[in-house]
Amino acid sequence: MMLLSRWIKCRRVLIPPILTNRFIILVCSPFSSHQSFVPSKSISHCASINGITSKDVAMAFRDWFQCRNDALLDRIFEILASKDEDDDHHIASRAAAELQLSQLGLKLNEEFVLNVLNHGKDVLSCLKFFDWAGRQHGYNHTRATFSAIFKILSREKLMSLMLDFLQTYAIQRHMHNVRFYDTLVMGYAVAGKPEIALQLFGKMRFQGLDLDSFAYNVLLNALVEEGCFDIVDVIFKQVSLRGLEDEITINIRVKNLCKQNKLDEAEAYLRGLERNGSVVNDRTLSVFVDALCKKNRFEEAGRLVEDFRESGKVRMDHTYGIWIRDLVEAGKIDGAIKFLRGKQFLEGYVPDVFRYNILICRLLKENRLDDVFDLLMEMKNSKISPDRVTMNAALCFFCKAGMVDIALQLYDSKSEFGLSPSSMAYNFLINTLCGDGSVDDAYRVLRDSVDQGYFPGNKTFSILADALCREGKLDKMKELVVIAQENNVVPTDDVCVKYIMALCKARRVEEGYLMLGELNRTHRITSKSMYSTLIRGFNRLSRGDMSSRLLIEMQNNGHTPTRKLYRSVIQCLCSMDNPENQVFKLLEMQLSLHEPDCQVYSFFIDGAGHARKPELARSVYEMISKSGIEPNTSSKVLMLQSYVKSERIVDAKVFYDDLSKEKRPSRKLYNALIVGLSKVNKPGTALEILREVREKGLIPSLECYEELVRAFCSIKNYEMVVQVLDDLTETGRPISSFIGNFLLLHSLTSKELYLAWVQSRPMVRETSLSDSLTLRELVGLFSGGLKVGQYLRNLDEVIERVFPLDVFTYNMLLRRLSMVRQMDDVLEFFYEMCKKGYQPNKWSYDIIVHGLCKCGRKNEAKRWLNAMVRQGFEPTEVTRKLL
To answer: Cys-Cys with 527: which of 95, 149, 493, 856 at CB 3.0–4.6 Å?
Structure first.
């Protein structure tokens, strides 16, 4: 593990340490072999001696990548793709590209040209090379190269281009040293124009000409692909009569039967060839195996593979490869790996790079990194030349395995071995770099990907945008938005909100407002959260004028502001010059948008109350009656709270009494008065109101009792706390978690509450004889007045019988036990808390780390600190000093 800490950030490690250690040693050791693994303890020791770093691992992979045998082919296509034909100087550019090709000293022949064409992914570059090669001295295209370019055009569905190509060829037939009609027949057949190909074939026969075996096979294959089965049978007879049937023709016969779903007939045909001593081609067998797999007949396909293997007459490499591919595509990855391992061990079978790639990519998708590791090492040690897919898969592997520093080093060295990252590799690298905190590198990779014609997927874009906003890299975020727009990518609402939030946090609210305007101009539906974020941003800058404008604009766009948002805008307006004018101006605009109702007025009363402007709130309140509307209970409560928040207690009582004279006060009204007085630290007055209410036979809300308990505890008037609790008990209401937790919290720091309770009414018994305790006894336990003793093992259950548990309760419990240095019991209750579904918070972890340090168990404390940090929490300053 010490080696890992040098080059893998712990929070990104997604694989077991033993895998990472295995990987380092096997990659970097000159004596490594895939078949023999060193035990993990030895590996760690060896690694620490050798001082292996991420740079060593990256270098080992660079060496492997540089040995690949298709680097020359990549260079050819790099030259061909380097210039755009739409360039104003395309003639000069084309000449320069052809000069660079000539300087490579290529030895042109049929095999090399076919390799180039098969390697190419860009059809235009393939056409450029085909054209250039055909004009080189000493080389002439063959039917095979023509067939290859036809297939490329057909595969890309560029039929019109292909037909133009054939027409040009017909005109310039003298320029090509190949059989003219053969080429045209093949071309039109591959182009999906079998009727023209057959017309040309008929014209040839009329002139006494005939196709050779190669052209016949191309024609037959095209007819099979087009489903012209009746004509195929006729052509097959012609081929047989002329004695031109070869292994490729047999292959096409099998494909023809498979295409018609005549699989039993195809199998009989193949087994008949075997019995007659005919050579069954490996590729022919693979066609039939593939057809069985496509019909989900894997058992039959497996038996066929084994039967032909046992015959010893067929080279099975290609069939094995197709069998592995089909198993993987069907999701039978374990079966594919088992088959591969068996053939490697018994027959020395070595898959080609394409089969390895199929396995690796599927295993990566399933996050089976152990198996990916094994296959990569197998390829490296077997000196199998990697291709672009392999290199991209390796890059993704390092990202998924948490070794992003190695992935980045390989990426930065890509020009050395011709790595062209795929869109998936770009996405993986950007995502992992963002998660690793390397946001600048992630942004650099994104810019590179855009230059290469890739723009990341929506998820990757959102991850990068979130990272840039989180770290305040707003200039880069601005560039990212521009790049997205240039690539016709519309940022999601979530991204826009985070960007606007980041701008507001950086006090660049005007830029956020401009972005909102841009979204509106593009007819983009702007979300409610965008407006809310901007309003809060302008509020922080005391720009109530802009907040008001946005509030109205928000409603015009169909969004309904919350009371909290109204409140924040009105509070901001109240902090400006002439607050009354500002507030009434906004109120007037609001009333123009809606029919007058109490809710609109209530929002303004609430806002003015929170801004401690009770006169302004009263003015709005009186406007309700003037508008011909009867104030509702909510308006009355908010007006009452406005007086209380400003500590205008006399005015609040007068207002309450006036309402009480009109009719019996509503429950909400007296609850609001009691709660409000308690919150402004006037619990004595609040208790008087509560007693008046109780004398009238009314029962205040539980919140009233909670706030009274909190207020009296805050001034340490525990005698009154006991009286409030007694009254609560008389109402028959249960003890809430809030009250229970608050009492336990005060009990942890002092015995005064417990003593006040005992003095008010002596306890009948010192402790309960059963597993049940009263709230007073719990206070005694937590304050130290009673011994924990017999309740230790199920103390949480004992508490739960008194009031409902929550995370805060468990934290009090952990704290109480840690105070008496019973840390093993603390850990036990922590695990019990998690087991019951309670999510530990910052204080849960801090209590444990603090307690372990106090007990001298610092190594254990550091392990818990690491777990705490991984959860995103930081220890308190007091706990940090103990470490």
So the answer is: 493
Start-to-end Cα distance in the chain:
22
Continuous H helices in 156-297: 159-171, 180-190, 194-206, 213-226, 229-241, 247-259, 263-275, 282-294
> Residues 6 or more apart from 624 whose CB is under 8 A from it?
598, 601, 630, 631, 635
Tally of domains in the chain: 1
User: Residue 33: beta bridge partners?
Assistant: 36
| Mean per-residue pLDDT of the chain | 83
| Tokens of residue 226, six digits | 């087009």
pLDDT tens digit sequence for 424-454: 999 999 999 998 889 999 999 999 999 888 8
Q: Note whether residue 860 is domain-resident.
A: yes
Q: Average of pLDDT values for 706-731?
A: 93
Q: Answer yes or no: is 407 within a domain.
A: no
Query: How far is residue 26's CA from residue 837's CA, in Å, rounded to a whole number?
Result: 43
Is residue 849, in this structure, part of any structural domain at all? yes
pLDDT tops 90 at residue 641: yes
Tokens of 606: 């609430």
Alpha helices in 401-438 (DSSP H): 404-412, 414-417, 423-435
- In the chain, what's the furthest Cα-to-Cα distance? 126
Q: What is the mean pLDDT of residues 460-489?
A: 89
**Is 870 part of any domain?**
yes
pLDDT digit string, tens, across residues 177-191: 446 677 778 777 777
From CA 575, how far away is CA 262, in angstroms rounded?
Answer: 85
Contacts of 275 (CB under 8 A, 6+ apart): none
Kindly tell me if the per-residue pLDDT of 723 is higher than 90: yes
Element (H, E) at 585: helix 579-593
Q: Give the gyration radius of the chain's Cα atoms.
A: 40
What percentage of the chain reaches a pLDDT higher than 90?
37
- Whose tokens are 């402007």? That residue is 613
pLDDT for residue 703: 95
CATH for 830: 1.25.40.10
Q: What pLDDT shows up at residue 1?
A: 28
Q: Rounded mean pLDDT of 708-718?
A: 94
Q: Which amino acid is at 568?
A: S
Host domain of residue 846: 812-883
Q: What's the pTM value of the predicted model, to 2 decimals?
A: 0.67
Which pLDDT does position 678 carry in this prediction?
94
Q: How far is CA 405 from CA 388, 436, 755, 880, in A?
A: 20, 9, 62, 30
C-alpha to C-alpha distances, 525 to 461, 493, 511, 565, 624, nearest whole angstrom:
20, 9, 19, 20, 35
Q: For the chain, percent helix, then strand, then coil, each to nearest 5?
A: 70, 0, 25
36 phi, psi to nearest 5 deg = -120, 120
